[in-house]
């Protein structure tokens, strides 16, 4: 089992930046592909960014390309999401997810979810 805890959310003005962190514990972190999902009120949870276990493969949804950057530090069992040029439409609860299979992760995500961290963007 993998335990995930997100941090770094908060209130920011449009155009500002935030850096989210997701600390993992339990199973070997480096065996898992990692992803960031977000869910706004009344909407489905959607994948925002993902990174393979080695860091060699990344995925970004079109809405965040060029603004968000995912990274990971396997020595610290942590995955990050640097969010720049934030827009009001980025406002959501952001959750990280871990899965050993890439297709599952970028599909609907796997079984292991963190509780999420709220990102609020004021216009």
Distance between the termini: 40 Å
Number of E-type strands: 11
- Largest sheet entry: 7 strands, mixed
Question: Percent of residues in beta strands?
Answer: over 45%
Structural class: mainly beta
What general outline do the C-alpha atoms trace?
globular
Give your account of this protein's structure.
With 123 residues, the protein is mainly beta. Helices cover 5% and strands 51% of the residues. It is built from 1 helix and 11 strands. It has one helix spanning 102-107; strands at 2-7, 10-13, 18-26, 33-39, 46-51, 58-60, 68-73, 78-83, 92-99, 112-113, 117-122. Strands 2, 4, 5, 6, 9, 10 and 11 form a 7-stranded mixed sheet that branches. A 4-stranded antiparallel sheet has the order 1-3-8-7, with no helix packed on it. Strand 5 and strand 6 form a beta hairpin. It is globular.
Summarize the structure.
With 123 residues, this protein is mainly beta.
Secondary-structure topology with pairs:
Elements: E1 2-7, E2 10-13, E3 18-26, E4 33-39, E5 46-51, E6 58-60, E7 68-73, E8 78-83, E9 92-99, H1 102-107, E10 112-113, E11 117-122
Parallel strand pairs: 2-11
Antiparallel strand pairs: 1-3, 3-8, 4-5, 4-9, 5-6, 7-8, 9-10, 9-11
Core attributes:
123 residues, mainly beta, seven-stranded mixed β-sheet, four-stranded antiparallel β-sheet, globular
């Amino acid at each position: 089992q993998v335990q995930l805890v997100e941090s770094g959310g908060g209130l920011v003005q449009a155009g500002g930046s935030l850096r989210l962190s997701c600390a993992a514990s339990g199973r070997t972190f480096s065996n898992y592909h990692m992803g960031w999902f977000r869910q706004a009120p009344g909407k489905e949870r959607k994948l925002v960014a993902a990174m393979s276990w080695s860091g060699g493969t990344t995925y970004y949804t079109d809405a965040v390309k060029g603004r968000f950057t995912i990274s990971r530090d396997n020595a610290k069992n942590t995955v990050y999401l640097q969010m720049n040029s934030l827009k009001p439409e980025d406002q959501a609860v952001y959750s990280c997810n871990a899965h050993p299979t890439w297709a599952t992760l970028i599909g609907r995500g796997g079984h292991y979810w963190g509780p999420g961290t709220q990102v609020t963007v004021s216009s």
